[in-house]
Amino acid sequence: MIRVLLFAGMRELVGKDHILLPVEMGKATVQEIKQWIGDQFPQTKDILMKSMCAVNQNYAREDQVVTDQDEIAFIPPVSGG
Amino acid sequence: MIRVLLFAGMRELVGKDHILLPVEMGKATVQEIKQWIGDQFPQTKDILMKSMCAVNQNYAREDQVVTDQDEIAFIPPVSGG
Amino acid sequence: MKSYAIVRDKIEIDPLIEYVTDRNAGAICTFIGTVREMTKGKKTLYLEYQAYEEMAEKMLRQIGEEIESQYPGALVAIVHRIGHLEISDVAVAIAVSTPHRAASFEASRYAIERIKEIVPIWKKENWEDGENWIGDQLEKVAYPSGSPKLEGEES
Amino acid sequence: MKSYAIVRDKIEIDPLIEYVTDRNAGAICTFIGTVREMTKGKKTLYLEYQAYEEMAEKMLRQIGEEIESQYPGALVAIVHRIGHLEISDVAVAIAVSTPHRAASFEASRYAIERIKEIVPIWKKENWEDGENWIGDQLEKVAYPSGSPKLEGEES
User: Fold this and answer.
1) What is the pTM assigned to this prediction?
2) What is the pLDDT of residues C66-82, one digit of tens each?
3) Which of A43, A72, B58, D82 has the highest CB neighbour count under 10 A?
4) Do chains A and B have 3 or more beta-carbon pairs under 8 angstroms?
5) Chains touching chain D at 3 or more Cβ pairs under 8 angstroms?
């Protein structure tokens, strides 16, 4: 199962620090994952729209394909410093 | 007697950290003091030309008049930092 | 000491300075970001920082490498603190040494701007009248100019 | 601690940072000038700094006041060391805090440039093949742009 890490506002809106995708999504694009999370957790749609996705700790394109071997994270607009 | 403080290259060229002007120069302009020092210590002429004069720890003009109540110093080009 | 680190305890500046001190450095510029009490008339009580820690350290290192390739001879160390921070606490500290002074200022400035663009760290403001994760607000455009570099993209 | 000082011993950075730390500061930029070994292919063995101490402290204070009037809310501390300095020793340290970061960088940079213009401190380089008071050389124009302000002159 693909595991998606959540942070900051997304983590609070979902109430968990990660989401497990259904088994049948064993391979998916970032775009598909985003769509699925938005459908399951409609409260995250606004932030999702503004978020980047990181795959294995690198910022990734929407069309990148990931599997359950990858580390996926959604990165809401950062505010460090 | 007017006392003139010397620093850095000027101090080394004169071999002293100050110069006492003759009593008859009880009152003089910065320009006159510069002239007198240059005459007495010709080895300082080059640096004197490039130096500023400070009177009571403020940078002073050449035409400023000083007395033995003032603290006079010649400031070769600075190189702190 | 790790020269690029996310930490939970008070940031000490001296180890950062020591880390970048070098016989061929003539200049060290440090930037320290502290928690300010008043922002646009609003009073901050405390802050809470969260990070995607492993990636954040990786991005700090990337920023350091960007600087070292841009400014020959530069040495860089960056530490960001997470967790609960009080007013005046140090949230981030950057130290850059270079042979000459101009580059140390430029590089240190570059580092803090880049941190605000690409490092996955989030700040939750706790005001007298509420709290919010900064960056989520509608008034802030997400990743305006300094969009994070995508994998495989030229920097 | 004096916030504008000429000292003979090792400069500690932490007290400077503490001095400018403030509830309304969000940024602290420090600049540290260290003794560099190689300059234009010439190897420095050590440096010797001399100052017109009382006036130098007065000029450091003037620089701080220039910054505080230019950048509202800025706090400034500057310490310069004199005497015998070895490679990597800290010769000068500047700390500036401001509410926002851009001003802290600008003000800290301003301070070091002003020090090199108006503060009566002199550096004697001791190279492998000789020594010289810097600033006396013919190749350096005396007081090019940043001529010290004369008494009564507008700044």
Assistant:
1) 0.93
2) 999 999 999 999 999 99
3) A72
4) no
5) B, C
